[in-house]
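Reopening this ticket.

The earlier resolution said the output was attached, but the attachment link was broken on my side. Pasting everything inline this time so it's all in one place.
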Amino acid sequence: MKRLFRSLVFYTAAIYIAGKLVPGFKLETDWRGLMVSGLTLAVLFAFVNPFLKFLFLPINVLTMGLFSFVSQILTFYIFLQLFPDNFHIEKWDFSGWDYVPLGLHIGSFNVGPFVTIVLSTFLISFIVMLLSVIL
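Inline output:
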């Protein structure tokens, strides 16, 4: 029970933070919907993600574990399909980035919905992992 509550809090916080940080990931729900979404995402990552990792085991072995991120993306995509009214994935414009001391320049470009899903998945996984280590 403690583990379920902890996962609920971590995934709810991660969804909220990702909704604020990723421009194309729009939250359109209240706190109750966010809590239900956090619980659902925690259950999906607890049960569906291991099944997908087992299903993709041969590819995962060939890529030395790099393909496991694809199972996380698929799990997050399933989550987005379960809550079509609570979250919207949109394309957005990246305005570019410059770091003059090193001469780095990244020009502006459009970011599509797929990249937004990948970025949101990475951010949510990173936040949950960080919270698990800290708390």
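Reporter confirms the inline version is readable. Helices lie at 2-21, 31-55, 57-62, 68-82, 113-134. The radius of gyration is 16 Å.
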